[in-house]
Amino acid sequence: MSFDIRRLRGADRIVGASAIAFFIFLFFFKWYGVSSNVGAITGINIGGNISTSGWDTFTSSRWIWLITIIVALGSVVLVAAQRKLEIPIGLGVIVAGLGALSTLLVLYRIIHHPTASANLGSFHASVGIKTGIWLGLIAALGITYGGYLQMQEEGTSLTDVGGRASGAFSGLIAPGVRSSPGNGTTAPTPSTSSPSEPPRPLSSGSPAQPSAAPPSTPPISPPAPARVPGSTGEPPPPEQDS
Questions:
Q1: How far apart are CA 115 and CA 152, in angstroms?
Q2: At residue 78, does pLDDT exceed 70?
Q3: Domain assignment of residue 195, yes or no
Q4: 235 in a domain, yes or no?
Q5: What is the pTM of this model?
Q6: Cα–Cα distance measured from residue 106 to residue 127, given in angstroms and rounded to the nearest whole number
Q7: What residues make up the domain containing 76?
Q8: In the chain, N or C terminus with fewer CB closer than 10 Å?
Q9: What are 144-163's pLDDT values in tens digits?
């Protein structure tokens, strides 16, 4: 496998740089912690050392962010190595989609996060988000934008993605089933059979056998001649002249 960085396009460079920056901001910058105007109280340091990174703070969203970084860097490596994955959609679509999802998660953490503050004389302390989360938001936006540029260079537009998604969703609906307007359930489509021809009952057994031929009538023999009582059934002898 020959790896040449000169093969990278502008979109790939944006994706790679944003993914590396996102990795650094996620693991080595402070995303949440305590800020105060006093270095220590009773020997306890309450300065920036109490703050935690994005990886240590948001234990549920961090896996989506890590997958986004890995996929983004993987797309750059494939281009530099002139490799291509046999997948039904372009790799730029996946990068842009994961970047958009990561951006929304970071933005959600910025809007909804635990906050607290305390003021006592000249002492002031507050708990909240730090600079690292804003840098992570910028890096996630960079991955999203770079993935969108990759889509354009691959010849894929948002309309194509929407059409493929719509086609895949419609393929899940079985033919002959329509949606019921009442409660959203499905009902079978009535069959359009000809009214002039009544439906025939279906037999669950073996196919019909041909009917057996009617029994043949035995031939009628003519009646036997009647016998005179006392005769033996032989003709009388002829008469002789005396």
A1: 41
A2: yes
A3: no
A4: no
A5: 0.62
A6: 18
A7: 13-157
A8: C
A9: 999 999 988 888 776 666 66
| Alpha helical stretches, state H, 53-118 | 54-57, 62-80, 91-111
Strand partners, 179: 186
Write out the two tokens for 219. Answer: 């031939």
In a domain, 4, yes or no: no
**Banded model confidence at residue 242, pLDDT cuts 50, 70, 90:** very low
Chain centre distance of CA 98: 16
One-letter amino acid identity for 236?
A: P
- Eight-class DSSP state of 49: G
**CA–CA dist 76, 15 (Å, integer):** 7
Q: Which of 62, 137, 69 is nearest to 107 (CA)?
A: 137
Domain count, the chain: 1
Cα-to-chain-centroid distance, residue 58:
27
Residue 202's Cα: distance from chain center in Å? 39
32 three-state secondary structure: strand
> Residue with structure tokens 């933005």?
107
The residue with tokens 């419609």 is 170
Which residue has 């770079």 as its token pair?
Answer: 146
| Residue whose pair of structure tokens reads 């196919």 in the numeric block | 207
Distance between CA atoms of residues 66 and 26, nearest Å: 9
